[in-house]
Every structure is written in C-alpha cells, then in structure tokens.
Specification:
Layout (H helix, E strand, L loop, with lengths): L6 H12 L3 H4 L1 E7 L2 H18 L2 E7 L1 H11 L4 E5 L1 H4 L1 H9 L2 E6 L1 E2 L3 E7 H6 L6 H6 L7 E4 L5 H12 L8 E4 L3 H14 L5 E5 L2 H5 L2 E3 L7 H7 L18 E5 H6 L1 H9 L2 E2 H13 L4 H11 L1 H4 L5 H6 L1 H4 L1
Parallel strand pairs: 1-2, 5-12, 7-8
Antiparallel strand pairs: 3-11, 4-11, 6-9, 6-10
Length: 323
C-alpha cells in the first residue's frame, strides 16, 4: 500500500510547539464546501491554524448558499474558503455590501477556469487547432465531434449557445450532449489513452485536467454582454465569447478579522494555482488518498511556498516540519 505522511502524524509530532499559542487563538470555525478541492483547502488551513497558530478549528460542512445564508444571519462560520461569488449571486453581493464579511484572497489563482479543450498531443501535431477558427476549418482533426456539458449543468446553456454562435453543426462538428459528468470525463480519458482526437467543454480545478495535458482552444475575446446573454437558454441570437475566469475567494467575517489579525494574514496568504490544485486532485485520485493524506502530501512537497504564509511564531511552531 502506498501511504504518505498523514495530517494526524504531522500533528502529533508538532503538537507541543503549537500549544504555545493556544490561548491566544481560541476556537475558529471554518466552512468546508462539499467538493474535493475545497476539502483540501480546509485540511491545509486547519493544519496550519492548529499547529502553527494554536487554534481549535471547528470544521463546518457547508455549500455556497448555506454558507452565505449563515454568514448573513448568524455571522458564522469565521472563515469560508472556496466561495464562488458568481454562484452565490445577489445574496453574496448584499452580504458584501453589509460590511459583515471581508474578502481575504483569491484562494485559487486565477480562479475557476472554463473552456473548450483539445489534448496537448493534438495541439502539438496540429497547432492550428488552438483557435476556434482552426477547429471549424478542420473538423476531422477533432473527430468531427464536440463533447458538450451534461444535461442540467449551468455550462450547458452557455455551450449550447456558443455551439450555435460558432455554427459547429454547419461546419460538420456534431454536438454530443453527455448525460452525466462521469461520461464526459470518461470520454476524455478514453481519447487520451488511445491518443485519439477529443474536443469539448471542461473546467478546472478538476481531476481530469490534472491527469491529462489539455490545451484550451482560443474562442476569441471575452465579451461580457455576449456571455451574459448566452446564459439565457432562449437567446435568439447568440454571439461568440470566451468564458470568463470565475473568482474563487476566501472570505471571513469582519469580527474575525478584527479579533484574529495574525490568523487573518495567514488565510489571506493561503492560495493555490488552479493548475496546481488540479494536479493535487489527480494525485489524490491516482493514490486513492484521503483528503488529509493529500493535504499532507502538499505540505511535505511545498514547504518553500507555505512557509512564506506564516508569521514568526507559527514558523517556530512548525520548524520541525520545515527542516
């Protein structure tokens, strides 16, 4: 069995040093969204807050809407990593304007990435396919097929409209509507295994984009008006537009930022590259690892990055791990 240093082992080794700051920090509540990348964020944050800053971290299972509602109504939890403002909509904007929360950082840089992709091996052999015009001019090189979002997904409406805007069918590219996220991911994996053409929608951070080297097709410039209109299933005249990058934030209550300035600085520094998070998800999948094991793998292999997030006392408390 392949096992790596897990969070519990690291915690046991470092707990005596961490106890030095326990009285200063107290209990900190942190929301854990119900998707894999958010769970990794929280595991890393929890370890550093507890072992570096002596906090007693309470993890609160949540999701976007419940987290925003709880912040607005109860002022809890203290910290919410991986909040997608675009998904929260007006409720988050009202919360932000109320002054009850503070945006600390983009926990994923540059954020949530969406787009239409082709395999890197295809792009290397046929670089003209890196643009949508190249794809339209050479449908056979992408297998004459576009792998669309599954039914019921928000991206489905936008991709449907973009397929009409670019007239994929008119250029000989069949739009295949996947019935689930599993079949969409499987289609990419199958194509990659046989080095066959693949063209379709995907997003990051995700396991497949961590496993497979994919190249985003240039759909042209982002046009906000066009993209907004393309989110309407009844758009009578869809226009081309690239997908915008979605901000993914860590937010905290104003009360927490005022009472815990050092912990706030840590959470303001804690951030991952979107591509790096996809790679972590791929590692987790390959090794059948738990969230804590994946967080430990990150901590073990990225010391030069996360040590810059810490204050002086936390650095001392975590010095055993930093050696």
């Amino acid at each position: 069995m392949k096992h790596f240093i897990c969070g519990a082992i690291l915690a046991a080794a470092l707990a005596p040093g961490a106890a030095l700051a326990a009285d200063d920090c107290g209990q900190v509540s942190i929301a854990e969204m119900n998707w894999a990348s958010a769970k990794i964020d929280v595991a890393v944050a929890k370890f550093l807050l507890e072992q570096g800053y002596g906090c007693d971290v309470k993890v609160v299972p949540s999701d976007t809407t419940p987290a925003v509602t709880s912040l607005a109504e109860n002022g809890e939890p203290d910290i919410v990593p991986e909040l997608w403002p675009n998904s929260a909509g007006e409720a988050y904007e009202k919360l932000k304007k109320s002054g009850k929360v503070v945006e600390l950082t983009s926990i994923l840089d540059p954020g949530g990435v969406e787009g239409w992709w082709i395999p890197a091996y295809t792009a290397e052999k046929h670089p003209e396919l890196k643009t949508i015009q190249g794809v339209l001019d050479n449908p056979d090189l992408v297998g004459d097929m576009f792998n669309n979002c599954p039914d019921g997904w928000g991206c489905r409406i936008v991709s449907d409209n973009l397929a009409r805007a670019f007239d994929l069918e008119g250029h000989g590219i069949k739009v295949f509507n996947h019935g689930s996220g599993e079949t969409l991911a499987t289609s990419m994996a199958s194509a990659y295994a046989d080095k066959k053409p693949w063209f379709g929608y995907y997003w990051a951070p995700t396991t497949p984009l961590g496993k497979f080297d994919m190249v985003k097709v240039d759909l042209g410039p982002y046009d906000k008006a066009a993209h907004d209109a393309n989110q309407n299933a009844d758009n009578p005249d869809p226009k081309p537009s690239a997908f915008p990058t979605a901000p993914i934030l860590t937010v905290a209550t104003k009360a927490f930022t005022e009472s815990h300035p050092e912990e706030t600085k840590l959470m303001s520094n804690l951030s991952f590259k979107t591509s790096q998070m996809s790679a972590l998800l791929a590692w987790q999948d390959k090794n059948n690892a738990t969230t804590d094991e994946t967080a430990a793998y990150y901590l073990k292999n990225n010391k030069d990055t996360w040590k810059t997030w810490l204050n002086e006392d936390a650095t001392k408390n975590l010095s055993k791990l930093l050696k």
